[in-house]
Each structure stands twice: as C-alpha cells, then as structure tokens.
Amino acid sequence: MNTAPVTIAPTSIDSVDSEIGMEVDRRRNFAIISHPDAGKTTLTEKLLLYGGAIQEAGAVKAKRAQRSATSDWMEMEQQRGISITSTVMQFEYQRHLVNLLDTPGHQDFSEDTYRTLAAADNAVMLIDAAKGLETQTRKLFEVCRMRSLPIFTFINKLDRPSMSPLELIDEIEQELGLTTYVVNWPIGTGDQFQGLYDRRQQRIHLFERTGSHGSKKAANTIIALDHPEIKDLIDPHLYQQLLEDLELLDGIGGELDLDAIHRGKVTPVFFGSAMNNFGVELFLEAFLEYALKPTPHDSDRGAVQPTDPEFSGFVFKLQANMDPKHRDRIAFLRVCSGKFEKDMVVTHARTGKQMRLSRPQKLFAQDRETVETAYAGDVVGLNNPGSFVIGDTVCVGAKRRYPDIPSFSPELFAYLRNTDPSKYKSFNKGVSELQEEGAVQILLSTDESKRDPVLAAVGQLQFEVVQFRLNQEYGVETYLDVLPYSVARWVVDGWEAIEKAGRLFNTLIVKDRWSQPVLLFKNQWNLDQVKSDHPDLRLSPISIPPS
Ligand code: G4P
Predict the structure, then answer these.
(1) Measuring from atom 4 of ligand 1, which residue has the nearest CA?
(2) Distance (Å) from CA 116 to ligand 1 centroid
(3) Measured between alpha carbons, how far is 247 from 3 in angstroms, rounded to an integer?
C-alpha cells in the first residue's frame, strides 16, 4: 500500500501557449467499469449533478436497463428505437472539461465497453463495499490493464453493511496485483458510518444521509482531526479506530507517485456513498488533479501529439437507431489531435476519400446538440450513412491511421441460419453491416461448404438483438444452431503455426474478419490441454488486427 498524505500541484502543462494546448490541458476523460448494481448509474448521475450538467439526479434513467428481462429490453428497443448502449456526457468542473464515456449497464453488451475503453484515457473502477471485487469488474479491469489505463477506485455504498476497508484494499492488492494509494478513509460503515477522513486535506467530512436518494447536493460539514468537540461529533470508539487506522496507513508509507498512477500500476482509492452524494465531490476533485490528460496516440506514422495542429481521430463505436423517428446511424469519433470544426473536410484514411463532417453532434442521454469545435479527449457523434466501420481514422494533412480496435474473446458461439434462401442477399448485407457496427463478432468456417456465419458474442442478448434487427431492418428470419464452445483464442503466428502444430484435439478452427485463424475450445480445461500439448503455439485472448 502506498499511503503517505501528499498534496500535489495540478498536472503540469507542456504547451499551454496555443489554443489547442490550453483546451487539451483542461480536458479529462474517463469511463466507469463495474459489476451491475454496484451503483454506476447512481455515481454517473451524481457526477453530473456536481458538474452542473443536470439540476436534479434521476435524469439518466435509460441506463437502468440492466435489471430488465430480455423481453423488456426488446420492447424498450422497439418503443424507443434506441439501443441501450453508451453515449458521452460532458461537463465542466472548476477549470476542467470532463468527458464521461458511458458504458452499457447490461453485461451482455460488454464488447461495447471494451471498445469504449479504447477511447478512454482513465478508468474509474466502482466497487460495492459489501461485495468487493465481482466478475464483471475483474474482466473489465483486465482490459484496462492491457491498455495500461490509469485506474481510480471508488468503493461505494459505505452507508450499508460493508466488508472492512482493510479487507477491501487487501483484495485489490492481492487479487488484481494493483498497488493502492488511499486518498480517503471511512469512519465506520453501515449504520455506524460517520464520515470520511480526507488524507489530501487532512480533514474529516461528516456523513449526513441526504434522503430522497440524494437528488440534490449534500450538505458538507468539514472538521479538523483535532477539533475540540470531536468526541461529541464522532463515536469515541470509531474515532479511536480512525486514529489507529491512520497510523497504520502512514506507517506503511510511500509517496504519491503520479507517474505510477498514470501507468496503471497504482490506484488511488476513494470511499463514499453515491446514493447519499457522499464522497462524490471529494472524489471528483482529487480525480481531476491526478487523472491523465489526453495523451499521444500511436499511429502508423508514429505517436501523434494531442496538441498536433492537424486534426485526427478514430471511430470507436457505431450506433444505429439513435433516433426512433429517423432510423439513422451515428459514428462516435474520439478526437486524438488538433481542432475539430463543424463542416470541416477530412480524409477518410481507409478509403483515401475526402469527406465533409457535417451535422456533428454531442449526445447527452437522449438530447442532441450540434458540436462546433472539439479537441483531443472529446467525442463527437458523426452522421454515418454507411461510411465508417469501427477503427476507421479520419484526419487532415498528412494521412495517418490509428491501429484497429481489437476484439476480445467471445464466450458464446452459434451458426446463424437463414430460413429463406431467396433472402440470401439481404441476409449477407445485414450480417456484414451488423458486424461492422460491432453488434456481434462474425467468424467463418474454414470448410468452404459451410457458408453460414458463426456468431460469436459475449452475452446472449447480443444474439437476440442481431436476430431481432435482421428481422426488423433487413426482413430476414433466422435461427441459431448453438455450438458447444465457450473460449476463443487467436493464433499469434497465423496459419503457418496451425499447420506446424498438426492435430489439435477438441478444437474448432475458424477464421475472423481478417481471415486470421481463431481456435474455439469447449472450456478452459481443453484450452489448457492444447497449450500443454503445443507449448510453441502462441495464443491470444484478443484479436490481432493486421498491421
Ligand atoms: P448500476 O448502474 O451499477 O447497475 O447500479 P445503480 O446505480 O442502478 O444502483 C443499483 C442499486 O444500488 C440501486 O438501488 C441504487 O439506488 C443503489 N445504490 C447506489 N449507490 C448506493 C449507495 O451509495 N448506497 C446505497 N445504500 N445504495 C446505493 P435499487 O433499489 O436497485 O434501485 P432504486 O430503487 O434505488 O433506483
């Protein structure tokens, strides 16, 4: 544990003399990763409340879909014509401009979260204090680790019976191998929860339940640790415990290492109760101080600085049917450099064509606003009449391409069968468009006689949405032949390595959209078996886009 209380200066600025430099410097962008029910919707609302983006919490209801049954979800999809997937919320707080990249609440759509993490500069790992680390959080944490994202931990629901704070910290350190840096520390939990000690400012924030789910900002009583009436304000036993805990934390030592935080090696840890608006502002203030501002992005022409005057960005997400009245598509573009301006003409790097970016939008829940300008770290919604696929780069000036966004191992596989051969063309068009949109991964058999695509998904709902949309949008009725596999691995050294390996037991060999080999295994045990039989066969849980 890395614990010494240190106050640091705001992140330094390299080139603030230009307009672009100043805009980049004040931007911070992040996505929240969590297990369903940990309080992501609640925390998002409260951050927006403190950021002044909403006046009263309760405005982001649409994201509550994770607890809906499939049928409710479908109905919702039909009624609103909206997919329950992420948008981006922007707000200003003090001198910063914050972009919160929202991710779907339903874990069946976590592929969407993986891609959103490709556009994020920081991640906030939200944990339920009663449950500790849960499966979905662990999975998403691994994706953050692969991307070396800085991770900020917010431990929520302290107003309810919780695991002990030390246990929670220990779990993060031991199970995720992540060093913690405690920024604030709880005084009691559950019915006994009395407040937080803020180690940055060395002060106590007294807890008050807000009532009405904290729709308004909480009152904030702040006192010094040696306040003369402390024993009247805090239970003496808990106060004593706090002093002991602080001694322990200080004893373990360690400096605040901002560089280690930015490399994703150390996580600053915060406690609080999002529902009661408690600890949210403390978190936001420290987060903005410690978080990574937009950083250089690797491209085929080397690293591109966010302050590079030539505009560039990449598409990380496509979204169909955002507006029920117009069955439209939006491409979400993460700006990586330069200044985005409405109606600007850019080069579409994959096709080499010039295109005008007209009607760019900022989407906030279900409202839209036209974007006039944007800078690195921002996300812009572009109208996409079929021009973009996920991973596309657009730029001005010297042509460059950002790397493709990899796919992560799906867990469910099924042949998708078309019931009506006369609809062959619509079927193929629908499958290919839904793949490009990232609704599902498509794998193909290596056996030419087996033409039906293999749908590969992270969750069952993805299958259902694909079938539903093929029916509604392309007029094609389909059925699924479920395959008995649950793990996919990409073969790092390609087809040659497969040939060299010879017979692979209990494995199905298929190819991905780049015709690269993918192995499907029934379970982890089969995968381990193949690994031990073929130690030279290098396998990857994420796809390897061609360079
Ligand atoms: P999610 O998006 O991560 O799935 O979680 P969400 O915010 O929807 O929160 C899940 C449940 O946890 C909600 O209760 C929410 O009110 C509750 N919750 C969130 N933060 C806190 C907290 O700090 N303390 C306590 N005690 N509860 C919290 P629900 O009963 O499922 O929904 P609702 O009726 O409250 O809306």
Answers:
(1) 37
(2) 23
(3) 10
Instruction: Give CA–CA dist 212/206, Å, rounded.
Output: 19
Contacts of 105 (CB under 8 A, 6+ apart): 36, 40, 41, 63, 64, 65, 66, 84
Range in 59-73, 149-163, 214-228 with the lowest mean pLDDT: 59-73
**Can you tell me the mean pLDDT for 405-427?**
92
Q: Which residues line ligand 1 (CB under 6 A)?
A: 34, 36-42, 64, 66, 105, 156-157, 159-160, 213, 273-276
Distance CA 240, CA 234 (A): 10
In 59-172, at which residue ranges do the beta strands (DSSP E only) sit? 88-93, 96-101, 122-128, 151-156
Highest mean pLDDT of the ranges 88-97, 118-127, 382-391: 118-127
Mean per-residue pLDDT, 229-251: 88
pLDDT at residue 228 greater than cutoff 90:
no
E strand map for 246-328: 266-271, 297-299, 302-304, 312-320
Q: How many whole angstroms from 38 Cα to the centroid of ligand 1? A: 7
Sheet of 517-521: strand order equals 478-483, 412-418, 454-457, 441-445, 507-511, 517-521, 487-491, 539-540
Cα(246) to centroid of ligand 1, in Å?
30
> Which residue's alpha carbon is nearest to atom 25 within ligand 1?
157
Give the tens place of pLDDT for each residue, 138-189. Answer: 989 999 998 899 999 999 999 999 999 999 999 999 999 999 999 999 999 9
Residue type at position 254: G
Tokens of 436: 């490009």
> The complex's ipTM?
0.98
